[in-house]
Amino acid sequence: MANNNQNGKLSREEAGRLGGEATAKNHGKEFYQEIGEKGGEATSKNHGKDFYQEIGEKGGEATSKNHDKEFYQEIGRKGGEARGNSDQSDSDGKMSREEAGRKGGEARARQRKNN
User: Fold this and answer.
1) For 4, phi and psi rounded to 5 degrees?
2) Radius of gyration of the chain (CA)
3) pLDDT tens, N- to C-terminus, the chain (115 residues)
4) Of 98, 100, 64, nearest in space to 81 by CA
5) Distance separating alpha carbons of residues 14 and 4, to the nearest angstrom
6) CB-CB contact of 11 with 3 (8 Å)
7) Is the pTM above the cut of 0.70?
8) What is the dihedral of CA 97, 37, 23, 103, to 10 degrees?
């Protein structure tokens, strides 16, 4: 049920939630991929190396607080598998960051699907 304020209007929070639900019903995976890509491109244009270093450090700290040794072993194994199964590589034999990220995401999606 909608949470109305004293004027009979939706709160900003409730309106946002309802709008998000409506958007989710009307758009598929491709829509979210496209807006995610656009957001990533805009962020990369507006921020430099220091920004990404800082958020990477914060994310790493948060992850280390929430996960144990087995978590890191598993993601390392998946990364190694993705790397070993790569058929696209740079001239020096290294996988691009984009390819590594895509393969890691696909591996994670397969794992979730199979569990």
Assistant:
1) -95, 145
2) 20
3) 555 556 778 999 999 999 999 999 999 889 999 999 999 999 999 999 899 999 999 999 999 899 998 998 999 989 888 877 765 545 566 777 778 888 888 888 787 777 6
4) 100
5) 8
6) yes
7) no
8) -20
